[in-house]
Amino acid sequence: MLKTSIAIVAIAAAHLLPAGFAHASDEGYRDARELIAKEFLGVWEADLDQSSFEGNAPLRALRTFQFTEEGKVLVTFMTWPSNGNFSMGHWAAQTDGTPGIEYHIRAGSIPYNTIELTATDERSLDLRVLRHGEESLAATYELSEDGETLNYSYGQTTIVYNKL
User: What is the chain's mean pLDDT, rounded?
Assistant: First the structure.
């Protein structure tokens, strides 16, 4: 009886998955939900005292990480720079380097950049940002073992984010 009940629950759960979702058992398919640590998810605020900046430090910076359709990582960012020009945008990408699109407040509904995100392990992500086909940023996200700190590094800048 217990085996029958478990089988019925498994069949019912499978029907709850979105159309086009590939199961982890499908040959070669794995998405961000399986490849990165769940501690990435949530709201992160920059610790400006612990961060180092090549240029001027912002007044405040926030990032959110969530999953979206097809197991993509959805990142939203908001920055209040010292010059007062608020910046905000979002992008969604798989963690296998497949290009995704970034939208930015400056461009409205027009795609702003192309994003390539690659999981190097469950706590590290490499980010490549392309603008007009040319790389404009290469960065790395490193999640701490306790999941409470996220370092975002590019060039001479390392922004230390704390989980809210």
Answer: 85
